[in-house]
Amino acid sequence: MSSRIEFTDAMVDQPTVEHEIADLESSIVPTTGKLDNLSEAPAYRGVVDIFTAEGRVDGWCLSTSDPTTPVSIEIYIGPFKFAEFMTGKKRADIAEAVGLPVVPGFSNEIEQQNHADTEGILHFLCEPKSLAAPFTELVLFRIKNSRVALPMSPRIKLSRDDLFNLVSKPQIIKGSLDALDSKGGFRGAVDRQSQGVISGWCVNTGNPDFPVELEIYLKDALLGVTTNSEPRKDVSELLKGPVKSGFVFKPEDMTATTLAGAMKVLSEAIEAPGKAAQMLSIKVRGTNCHLPVLPTVTFTAADLKRYYDEATAKLGSVASNQRIGLVEELMSPTKSRAVTTPDDVKLVAFYLPQFHPFSENNEWWGEGFTEWTNVTTARAYFEGHDQPRIPSDLGYYDLRLDQIQEKQIDLARRYGVSAFCYYYYSFSGTKLMTFPIDRHVEKNYDMDFCLCWANENWSRRWDGSESDVLMSQTHTELDDLAFIDNVIPYFSSEKYIKFDGAPLLLVYRISLLAKPAQTIENWKRKVRAAGFPDLHVCMAESFGLTDPNEFGADSTCQFPPHGVSAREINTTVANIDKGFEGKIYDYIEVAANEVRRPDPAHTRFRCAMPSWDNTSRKGKAGNVFHNASPEVFEAWLSVLCAKAKRDLPSGKRLVFVNAWNEWGEGAYLEPDRLNGHRNLKAVRAALTTSNMLLSESLIAQAEGATEPEDQNAMQLVATLASVNRRLLQFATDYSSLPTGGPSPFVPIPKGSIRLQKVENSFCNVDSLNGRRVTNHEVTIVRGQKLGVSGWVRVPGVNLIESLPVFVRLSGSGDHAFIASIYDRETRQDVQAYYSDPNDHVHGFRCSLDFFSVAPGIYHVEILVGSLGDTNAVYVVPTKIMLIIA
Amino acid sequence: MKLPLVSVIVPSYNHETYILECLKSIHEQTHERLELIFIDDNSTDRTFDFAKALLGTAFSKRFENIVLRRNPKNSGAHISLNVGLDLAEGDYVAIINSDDRFRPRRIERLLNAVSESGSEFAFTAVDTFSESRSKAGSDASEATPAFPESLILLRVRQLLNIARDPTLGYSLLRQNVAISTGNFFFSRRLANDIGGFQPLKYCHDWDFILQALVRTQPVFVDEVLYDYRLHPTNSFRSLQHLAQVETEVVLRRFFRAILMGPAPNPKCPSPQRDMGNFEAFVAKAYYSKFWAKEGGNPLEGERVTASSAAKPTGTLSGFRILSEALKGAQQVV
C-alpha cells in the first residue's frame, strides 16, 4: 500500500498561495504514503495507487492535522492544470491504520476540467524533453494550495503516449442538468436532426450567460462552428433564467470547402452502411468536451447527403465552379439584334490586323514580331506619362486564334461599335495581314466592316517617312487599278458597309496614287461592272490632305492626330527624361478645338481618338497627347455623334474612332489596365440621346453662343443626375422594409378558390403602419397604403418559405380581393410559446395598396397555400375589419 | 382581306394520355386559318402514333397544312420549338404544350389583341387543372400528391404578378408571367429576329419573352384562354443550381441586349428612360451583380483597375472639362 521512496524531508507546513508556474516544478515535494508518526511532518499523507490509461485514478490522501476533512487534489500535466477532484471515498485499510472513520480515498474517472488548456498540454507533451522524460515527471498530483504532491505507486505503468491519448480523448459531457455543482462545467446534448439541420443545446453551467462555441464534425471533417444563441425553453426553465442554450447548424452555414469535405465523408459512409449518427461529433471549441448525441438523432448517410445536396442546390456553392463555365458557355456570342437603323449614328472603329507573326515581319524585325513587341518595351518619360500600356481583358493576343477576334467583336457590339474598318495592306500586289478580314468574311461574323487601304511604304520609322523602305509601294497606275480587283470580293459580303448599295472604301494616303482622279474613276467602273451600283471612295485627312474634290474622292474622313491643333506643353510636365525629344500636347485642348472645328462644304466623317502616344514605337522621339481621359473622350465623341445626326444624311451617319486596337500608338478602345472598360463605355454613352442633347449645349458654346441659358441647362442636367444618384442610394438601401414593394390587390370571384379552415389556427396582426393595433376596425382611404405586420400559425402545417401567403379581403360583393405577401420572417419570440417544435409560426410584413379595391367593409384574412391541392388554401381570419372609404 | 395564317406548334413528349385532348382543342379554334406543326421529341410511348393516326383522318381537313416530325433522339423542348419555327409558314405562331388545352376563342382573341395594339407578342390568363384530385376525406398525406409550391393558386398569382409593377416589362423581369411557352403567341418575324429558343432547360421560355420585350411591348389578354395541366412534383431540387445558372444567363442576355443600343420597343425597361427607377428595381430584385457585369461596372470583390475604382462613370465631367476649355482662346488651326 505504501511506497518506499526516498524523498527529502524538506517540507512546508502551512498552505501556500499558488506559485508561479516556473516555481512549481522545483518546489513541489512529494509526500509519503506511510502512516507512521502522524503527529509529525509531513502533514499530508497519501498515494496514487492506480492510474489507468482510460483515466481512472485510485488512491487516498489525508491531512494529519485534520484527517476527516476531504482534500482537494489537482492533476497537473507539465505546468498545466488538467483536472481536480476531492477525496471522500471509504478506505477501510487507511481508516484502520489511522484509527478514525476517515474517508480519504478517491476513485474517479478523471474529469477534465472546464478550462483545461488541452492544446497547451498536448503541445507540452510533444516537446522533445517531454518525449524523453519518464511518466512520473510529466504528471503531478498536487494537493491544492500546498506544495505537496502525492507519490505515485511504482505499479503505475503508464507512458507519455498513454497520457497523450488520455488528454486527447473526447470528454463526453452530461446531457442533463441534474447534479449541478459549483465546479461549473459544460452540459449539453445533440438532440435533433431534421432536414439536414442539426440542433441541440449546450451551456456553461459555471457561467450560463457566456456563449459557447461549438465545432461540428462529421467523422474528422469539420463542418463549421456555431454558438448557442437560440432560446431553449426547457433548458431555461431548469436553469431558472432566460438562457440562450440552443444551437442550430444548418447546411447553409457551411462553406464550399467544408461542404465538400462533408460530402466526401458521406459518400464513403454510404458505401459502408452503419449508423451515420455515430459519425457526428460536436465539441466545445478549445476543449475536449464533446456533446453526447442522443438516440433521438438518427439519420442515414444517404439522408444527410440528400439534404446537403438540396441545400447546395439552393446555394449553388459547390457548383459555383461549374456555374461559371456553364454561364460562359450559354452566353457565348449568339445572334445579336439589329441595333441601328439607317437613321442612327453608326460607330466605326479602325482595326489594325498586325497582331500575329508572319514571315515578312519575322524577316525584318526578328522572330515573332508583332505590334506587342513595341508595346511591351515602352516606358514612361515624364511624371504622369501613361506608359507602358498593358492590355487587360484580351491580353497580348495573337490574332491567329479565332476566339480573339470573336471576343473582340462581342466586346465591340456590346458597347455600341457597329463596324470595324480593317486596314488593308497590299504592296504592289502582295497582300499582307488579311487574315482577320478573310476570317470575318468566311465566318460571316455578326459585325459590319469596311476596308481602308493603308497605302504607303513600310519603313523602319513607322511615321511615314521614306527612309529604309522594307516593302515598297509603287503606285503605278496599273498597280493602283489592280488593287481594286483584290478588294472587290470583300464587297460581296453582306456585312460590308454600303451606301445605297455602293461599298465604302477608305484610302489612307490618297495623294500617293499616281493619278488619283483617273484611278478612282476606273475603280468605280470596275466595281459597277462587278454588279454594284457604285463605289464610294473616302479619303483620310492625313498629311494635310483635306479636299476630296482635288482627288475625285466622294468624301473625307478625319484621322486624328493628323490635322489636330494644340500647343506643346513639354515645359509643364514634371521629371521629364533628359533625352526626350518628342512633343507633348494637351489632349483636352485638342478635344476642345475639335468641338470648335467648323464644318466643310463636302461630306466629312468625323473621327475621335481616345488618346495618342507613339513613344512605344519611336521611343524618346515619340509624341504624346497628354491628359487624355475617358470622360473627355466621351464628351468629344458625343459631340461628333450629335453632329453626325444633325449634319449627315440618313444612312451615312458614320462616326469613326481611331482606333480599336492601335496599341503601338496608344490609340485603342480595347480594355487596358489603367482604364478598364471606360473608353468602351464612353463610346456607348456617346451614342445615347441624352449625351447627344448635352453635346448641343457644348456645340452652342463653341459656336459662340454664350447665353447663360445653355450653361444653365447643362448645370441643371448635371444637378439632376447627381440628385438622382443620391436618391438611388436610398432606394436601393436594403435595410428599409418591406423590400418587396407595395402589394396590389386583384379581384377574384368568390368560390373560385377552395378555402379550408384549420382548427386552432391563429393570426395576429402586430402593427399597422408601424403602430400597434389599438382598434380592430380600421378605416382607410383608397389611395392610402397600409403597412401590416404580424404572424400566423396553422397547426400541423409546416409553413416553409416557398408556400405562398396572401391577404384576402372579403366583403359583401361577389368578388374577394387578394394580395401577395412578399416578406416573411421567423418569429422566435412567438415560436417560444408553442412547445411543439413542428408547430411553426410565420411572421409576415407587407405594404398593401388598395387602389383597385372597391369601397366597402371587409374582413381581413390570411391565406396560406397548401401543398396538396393547388387551388385550395388555408384561411386564417384576423380580427381586423377594414373600412375602405 | 384574307385572315392571317397561324401556325400552331405542338412540341410533344410522352403525353399519350393527353395528346388527343390537346389536338382537339386546336381543332375547335374559332379562327379558321391554321396550320399544325407537330414535333415529337422521340417519345417512348404512343404519343406520336396517336397523333399520326388522328391526323390521318378527316380530323386534319380543318388545317391548311399539317407537318408531322419526330426528332431522331430526345433533344429537349427548345429543339422541338426551333424545328417547328423553321417549318412554320404562318404570319403568326402559337404554341401549345402537348398536355394542355386551348379555349376555343383563344387564337381569335390573341389576333385581335395584336392587331389592335400593333404588338408582335401576346399572351392570356391561365387556369390550371388536374385529373388527379386528392381523395376526398383522405387523412394520409401520402395519398395527396405534393405539387410544387410555384403552382399554388397559379391563376391568382399570375394576375398578382402582372399587377405588381408599373409596366408588364418589369413584371417580366421578375419571372415569366406568361407562365409557359404554351401561352405564347407571336409573329414569325419576331421569332426570326430573336433567333429562336436558347438551349436552356428551364428558362428557355423566360429568355424568349424577355428578348421579345426588347423588340415589342407584349400584350396581356385578361381572359382565361389557356388550360395548364398540373402534375404532382418530381423534385427538381437537385437541378436547382442549373436553374440558377440559367437565370443568370437569361438576365444577362437581356441586359446585354438593352445596353447595346436603344431598344426598338420604347416601353422596354431601360436605364435611360426609367432613369433611377431601373437601377432601383434591379437592386431590389437582387440583380445588381448581373447588371454591373454587363454594364462593365465592376462591383466589390471583382478585380478593379486602378482608376475605374477611383472615378465613377457618367459624371458628365468630360462635358464640364471641355466647357471650361472652350472658354479659353482658340488655338490657330
UniProtKB/TrEMBL annotation, chain A:
InterPro entries: WbsX
Domain of life: Bacteria
Gene3D superfamilies reported in the protein's UniProt record: Glycosidases (3.20.20.80)
Protein name as catalogued: Lipopolysaccharide biosynthesis protein
Organism in which the protein naturally occurs: Rhodoblastus acidophilus
Taxonomic lineage of the native organism: Bacteria, Pseudomonadati, Pseudomonadota, Alphaproteobacteria, Hyphomicrobiales
TrEMBL record, chain B:
GO molecular function: transferase activity
Residue ranges annotated for the Glycosyltransferase 2-like domain, each copy included: 7-139
SUPFAM superfamilies: Nucleotide-diphospho-sugar transferases (SSF53448)
UniProtKB keywords: Transferase
Name of this protein: Glycosyltransferase
Organism of this sequence: Rhodoblastus acidophilus (Rhodopseudomonas acidophila)
